[in-house]
Design brief:
Elements (H helix, E strand, L loop, with lengths): L4 H33 L3 E2 L3 E4 L2 E4 H33 L3 H12 L4 H8 L5 H14 L1
Antiparallel strand pairs: 1-2, 2-3
Helix pairs in contact: 1-2, 3-4, 4-5
């Protein structure tokens, strides 16, 4: 399976999206837990918790929102997995170049410094571009 430059650039965003979405899901779950464990007063369809009115419709809305967040997280995890599977099948040198350039956001010159062996920013960039054309 080939991976294009566009999906490599999405990798970092996908990892961040997973982390941020997990935080959003936890926040929603805490909100729903507060609703369930709070003191309930009023009628069956409308009750007050800590001074705020909450209905079963609100709970349904939170469940829908949580499901959307789970879908967003799954899509991001798919991108992350695709890139990581592809990375395992390419030469180690190219794995390092891609990791430094795309995952850590280094300049081509900085990548060349990390790679060593008299590499230059231009030579590393050309090596990457040639590899991606052939992939």
């Amino acid at each position: 399976m080939g991976v294009d430059k566009k999906i490599l650039e999405q990798y970092v965003d996908a990892c961040e999206m997973i982390r941020e979405t997990e935080q959003d899901i936890k926040r929603l779950q805490r909100k729903r837990q507060t609703i369930v464990t709070g003191s309930v007063k009023g009628s069956m369809n409308d009750f007050k918790i800590e001074g705020t009115s909450f209905t079963y419709t609100d709970d349904a809305q939170l469940r829908i929102e949580e499901k959307m967040l789970e879908e967003r997280k799954a899509q991001s995890e798919e991108i992350k997995l695709q890139v990581e599977q592809w990375m395992n099948g390419i030469p180690v040198r190219m794995q390092r170049i891609i990791r430094y350039k795309f995952f850590e956001g280094m300049s081509w010159e900085r990548v060349a410094d990390r790679i060593g062996r008299k590499a230059t920013g231009d030579s590393i960039r050309m090596e990457f571009n040639n590899f991606m054309r052939a992939a």
